[in-house]
């Protein structure tokens, strides 16, 4: 369903958004994300402190328990660090921020995202598989933002499948000096009349969806000089194809007007 963006923005920001142009609505949405980021940052800091305290408590456990629990705490600590990075970037959405580029290994990226999502997928009886072409070149990207974009696509796929299905994440080289990252699900697919709106803020066809995940993913990919498109897969389900150029042109800052 299409959620009433104007009403949501009006309630959240105390401003009538019904008569605003698209660019002004994007500005309001950026302010909303900034406000949410401020609200999230404090509990994140508290969680980080308590994880550190738990790590200290591990020293009092038996070696067997320490060996069992340490990897899980390392994952939690790593994800908290990534979330902090995302929050800081949301805080800068009102004033566009540059990407922090470095060579990113596609295999590591895809493997990391799939491993993060497998426990939740298993609870829903959803199989998550990764297929990465051999010897893929590294892409110049912001690793935190690119991870967030791919995570959003996999989360979207999981919400589309709901239960008892399959999600495939594939990375491959393309003829046009780019790397493609494709997330395919075994869900119901996207109604053809809604394909044009799938990346609009607050647009969602799922009960679980907030309507922001795909929009954020598209903003991140566009900032990298790439593209993100959605289509229905042959045989059923949906496909989201992210193209990242190997030879970078000038990128667009995240949150900037185009």
Tally of DSSP β-strands:
7
What's the CATH superfamily of the largest domain, by name?
A: Histidine kinase-like ATPase, C-terminal domain
First-residue to last-residue Cα separation: 27 Å
Give the overall pLDDT as a whole number: 79
Radius of gyration: 19 Å
Second CATH tier, the architecture of the largest domain: 2-Layer Sandwich
Q: What is the CATH C level class of the largest domain, in words?
A: Alpha Beta
List keywords for this structure.
disordered N terminus; 47% helix; alpha+beta; globular; 258 residues; five-stranded mixed β-sheet; single chain; Heat Shock Protein 90
Summarize the structure.
This protein is an alpha+beta fold and 258 residues long. The protein contains six helices and seven strands.
Question: How would you describe this structure to a colleague?
Answer:
With about 260 residues, the chain is α+β, with helices and mostly antiparallel strands. The chain has 6 helices and 7 strands; from the N terminus they run αααβαββαββαββ. Strand 4 (about 165-175) and strand 5 form a beta hairpin. The longest helix is centred in the first third of the chain and has 36 residues, at about 20-55. The strands form 2 sheets. A 5-stranded mixed beta sheet has the order 2-4-5-7-6. The protein has a two-stranded antiparallel ribbon with strand order 1-3. It has 2 domains: about 5-90; about 100-245, Heat Shock Protein 90 (2-Layer Sandwich), CATH 3.30.565. The chain has helices at about 5-15, 20-55, 65-90, 105-125, 145-160, 215-225; strands at about 100-105, 125-130, 140, 165-175, 180-185, 225-230, 240-245. The two termini are about 25 Å apart. Helix content is about 45%, strand content about 15%.
